[in-house]
């Protein structure tokens, strides 16, 4: 009888262990980002921001044990789609996140939508997904792609600046950049040039700028493209003749570390800055510097903010991490204290947020970095949401 009891006890303990393991099943996030090639720094920063959010949460977001499943899209849409299919069907992730380039976002989104799996890009919100093409399962926690350029258009108009020359890459985000700038800046452009993606030599473009002598050059060239352009621009002696202006992604901290004095004096619009003076941001920046021994970039900041958003959203679904409909609704309605300050989703799942102006300076430690100098606009709403048929979050 005693032996039979011990056997039954062992079975009960085993069943309890299985139930406990199931209860502790991790929430899995498939992180698709660019982790190799000239734009690999973007993926590095994205993972750094998410890993920091997890570390500060003790391996959990909102008390829910969380696992990151990373994948390198190599900035190629077809690879991004393959990763999305694998993560959804084989890795059984609960959601998708990350992604830097708009063309990859556009390739990944149909797979997420087909599987009714929420997908939150940490930076871009392509125009194709912001208006009539908006979708319940797609979000951008960063910004609608036109945003940084729209607000600079507003700034140029307010300051009555003229004779602006534009240099952008020939890809969806580059085209959105020009469209956004022109939406609020109606003066004729001095020039409008679309470069090859990952172009490294800008001698032809710089020669054209020298001939035009514009008042300012608006440069949207993320990553290695911007590094090479700025170095060549300064060598050509153009920095003081036609100062550089642009969006945040052209003047992030990793780029400034690489270009040094070549970027001094450049102005850029941003939805987040490392010197934003709210408690959440101060905690993030201090923890990031302690962990990685460098200032964070926008890519790390927006990834960390996704962690904060999920820390607010996950507890509301009460452990039902496999319920994708409940998870999507929780993300849509999440109320959290963003490190950038004011934040909420528009009905098209693009952020409504404030934008500020930064300038590149050398600080008291001798470091070349960004400093916030002005507010451009509060509560900026992208221009596409009015064409989105979804209803606003409650």
Could you provide a short overview of the structure?
This protein is an alpha/beta fold. The protein contains 12 helices and 14 strands. The longest helix is centred in the N-terminal third of the chain and has 22 residues.
Brief descriptors of the model:
394 residues; 40% helix; 20% strand; alpha/beta; disordered N terminus; eight-stranded mixed β-sheet; 12 helices; six-stranded mixed β-sheet
Folded structure, characterized:
- Helix 2 packs parallel to helix 11.
- It contains twelve helices and 14 strands.
- It is globular and about 60 Å long.
- Strand 4, helix 4 and strand 5 (119-121) form a beta-alpha-beta unit.
- 40% of the residues lie in helices and 20% in strands.
- The strands form two sheets. Strands 7, 8, 9, 10, 11, 12, 13 and 14 form an eight-stranded mixed beta sheet that branches. A six-stranded mixed beta sheet has the order 2-3-1-4-5-6, sandwiched between helices.
- The protein is of the alpha/beta class and 394 residues long.
- The longest helix is centred in the first third of the chain and has 22 residues, at 2-23.
Q: Count every beta strand, where a strand is a DSSP E run of 2 or more residues.
A: 14
Residue-averaged pLDDT: 92
Q: Which structural class matches the secondary elements?
A: alpha/beta
Binned strand content: 15-25%
Low-confidence stretches: 1-22
Approximate shape: globular
Quick one: biggest sheet? 8 strands, mixed
* Range of helix content: 40-55%
Q: Rg, please?
A: 23 Å
Task: Note the run of SSEs as H and E.
Answer: HEHEEHEHEEHEHEHEHEHEHHHEEE
Number of helices: 12
The end-to-end span amounts to: 60 Å
